[in-house]
Design a protein that fits this description.
single chain, about 80 residues, alpha+beta, 3-stranded mixed sheet, 3 helices
Length: about 80
């Protein structure tokens, strides 16, 4: 991100995709649970809340249960929270 945005003025974004309710990997069952892990991850990586590139990092949460429901009913796709 730094290389692209700051050094080369490329309008890049980093999109982080988090799956909610994936029981096959015993993942978080809610967006709130993921957000706790994301805060911890940022702390471990030393990324402060006011980091220069923070506005260009987007979190997307996809509910696996909605994917399965939509797949069985033929609907277009899941609802994403970001």
């Amino acid at each position: 991100m730094y290389f692209l945005r700051v050094m080369n003025s490329v309008p890049a974004f980093l999109v982080m995709i988090y799956f909610i309710g994936d029981e096959t990997v015993k993942g978080p069952s809610s967006q709130e649970q993921w957000e706790i892990f994301i805060v911890r991850m940022n702390q471990k990586l030393g990324i402060p809340d006011d980091h220069l590139l923070k506005p260009f990092i987007k979190d997307i949460f996809i509910d696996v249960n909605e994917l399965q429901e939509n797949n069985s009913t033929g609907l277009a796709g899941p609802t994403c929270n970001y």
